[in-house]
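Minutes, project huddle
Topic: does the predicted pose make sense with nicotinamide-adenine-dinucleotide bound?
PN asked that the exact inputs be recorded in the minutes so nobody has to dig through chat later. Recorded below.
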Amino acid sequence: MTNQYTGLYNSELPPEGQRQALRDGAVPVTVYGLGKMGLPLAAVYAKTTGNVVGVDIDADVVRMVNDGECHVAKEPGLPELVAEQAGRGALRATTDSVAAAKEGAIHVIIVPTPLTDDHEPDLAAFVAVLDSIAAGLAPGDMVVVECTVPPKTSSELVVPHLEAKSGISRTEFGVAFCPERTSSGRALQDITGSHPKIVGGVDTESTRVASLVYGEITSNEVIAVSDATTAESVKLFEGLYRDVNIALANELARIRDDLGIDVTEAIHAANTQPYCDIHAPGPGVGGHCIPWYPYFITSRVTTDTPLILTAREVNDSMPAFTADTLRTELSHAGRDIETATVAVLGVTYRPGVAETRATPAAGVIDRLTEHGATVLAVDPMLDDDVVASFGATPVSLADLSAHDLDAAVVVTPHEEFDDIDWAAFDDLVVIDGRGTLGDIGHRVYTIGAGPRNTEVRHHD
Ligand SMILES: NC(=O)c1ccc[n+]([C@@H]2O[C@H](COP(=O)([O-])OP(=O)(O)OC[C@H]3O[C@@H](n4cnc5c(N)ncnc54)[C@H](O)[C@@H]3O)[C@@H](O)[C@H]2O)c1
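Predicted holo structure (tokens), as shared on screen:
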């Protein structure tokens, strides 16, 4: 691709000329991070602009993208789109982030922003990308932050960092936060239009450029909020709302035995009122969004946030509650957890996704082990060594019935579990973490709904 640099920040072209330049590939785009979300985003940018360089520190990822291959699994349409865009030269990849930064007029950042064990946002990868961008920044460039960051990151970290390291005045480049509001498994449809796109710049020109760019990317509405901090907060509030709401559902599930009702039935009925939208209870909240983002806020404010922290506590307590409920149910069935062999079904945090970050299965396995149980675990999405790293003995789904189980805990209901032949087991006690089991002919306690089939007892 020839160097046809056209920066959009402070551009003197009329808006339609800017849009045309973007569509013509005259505004080179660099996307930093080609992971589960970065690769779909880079591919959509490539389809829209015809001129994208993707940067990743993983040489295998870079090689695959350059070969037109897709390393992200279970993302409908993505392999075809990557092959098509790489094939026509619209999507290239490199590990050389500084060279890519020199090429780019729009810099899109979508690298991991995890949480440390001390509940602090870890911005190391993010800052490494900023350093590369600073080394290649030019007046007129636009920096778009898509990965989730704590409030004020764009205005108080990105802008001063880039200004200091590049020597270019903050009045000559733009910065906007434009959150990724995408779910794994539906990335392309989400990026191109499932939800309105939120954009918020550090100044009005940044907001204008971000709105113009995403007007080309999405078929949905672009909502320009007042500033970058507002946009950063929007993304965090979405996760926070779900965390607090799930905590409410989980607390209701915990009082279910006192009430003696099926709490999930009550929730469903309550939700028929339009202002009520209580989420589903479960064995805990996992992944790298909902359990982490509350701390992105609490770590950055001085005001007390008791509700946010209590919601975290309630959700973090659910794996232990799940294991303790099994102990109680075993005891009701006249058995002791210390001598029980228990299969944990599902180690990933979500069905159908090979992702274990912050998975509640870890806490369930730990607590069962503390109680003295022998813990096996099954996960069709994961290799045995990954399952074993959680402290359980890995077992394949095909071999499950060969084990003399006393109990099972469904933490994450992968669709493969629909094929389990429950009749092959004798006298099981089962905890149904997500309410997905029908009548399986064993004693089952569903989180929220409570016990059923309590009369099922075969032999001692
Ligand atoms: N996965 C989701 O469902 C989701 C949804 C919404 C938002 N997000 C946001 O997007 C971010 C990225 O998520 P993901 O699922 O794509 O992560 P991921 O772990 O799948 O991919 C991250 C990629 O970034 C690369 N990388 C790491 N450091 C780098 C660096 N310094 N320079 C260039 N590349 C680097 C990694 O090699 C990897 O390929 C998350 O941290 C989150 O803030 C993710």
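Observations noted during the meeting:
- The domain at 316-452 is CATH 3.40.50.720 (Rossmann fold).
- The chain has three domains: 15-226, 237-311, 316-452.
No decisions taken; revisit at the next huddle.
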